[in-house]
UniProtKB/TrEMBL annotation:
It comes from Nitrososphaera gargensis (strain Ga9.2). Residues 3-149 form the Endoribonuclease L-PSP/chorismate mutase-like domain. This is Putative endoribonuclease L-PSP. PANTHER family: ENDORIBONUCLEASE L-PSP_CHORISMATE MUTASE-LIKE DOMAIN-CONTAINING PROTEIN, ENDORIBONUCLEASE-RELATED. It comes from the Archaea.
Length: 151
């Protein structure tokens, strides 16, 4: 069912990106929570959106980066769970936006992730959230997104 929804949105999940460090991409607890490690906007093994949002790339490109991070996170979840149909609801999203200190539109950027989760999971995609500005992210990524889902 979720696979059909993704297809209707024109989304094909990629192979899950390999971790860029000493961690696992998803941890599922006995309390039915899955924690997805931070995902950056990679496509074909390359970072697609680099630099600082609001300086090097637009807010709209930052939203696309957050959406791509979420697609990568969904690929990680599918790999860990076997099926995205096991996801009951999105619980929490944390988005990090590489930006200059005076940039204040982090919530607009991370809407790229939040809006996609609602498109995919409907009301069960609504979640608590934090949108944080940071001075840099791994591999000069513009955005990084992590989230928690109930399974």
């Amino acid at each position: 069912m979720i696979e059909d929804k993704l297809a209707s949105l024109g989304i094909t999940l990629p192979s899950p990106p390999a971790p860029a460090g000493s961690y696992v991409p998803v941890v599922v607890t006995h309390n039915n929570l899955a924690f997805v490690a931070g995902q950056i906007p990679t496509e074909g093994g390359q970072v697609k959106f680099k630099g600082k949002v609001g300086r090097d790339i637009s807010i709209e490109a930052g939203q696309q980066a957050a959406r791509l991070c979420t697609i990568n996170a969904l690929a990680q979840l599918k790999s860990a769970l076997g099926s995205l149909d096991r996801v009951k609801r999105a619980v929490k999203v944390t988005g990090f936006v590489s930006c200059d200190p005076l940039f204040a539109d982090q919530p607009k950027v991370i809407n790229g992730a939040s809006d996609l989760l609602v498109q995919v999971f409907g009301e069960n995609g609504r979640h608590a959230r934090a949108a944080v500005g940071v001075s840099s992210l791994p591999l000069d990524s513009a955005v990084e997104v992590e989230f928690i889902v109930e399974v």
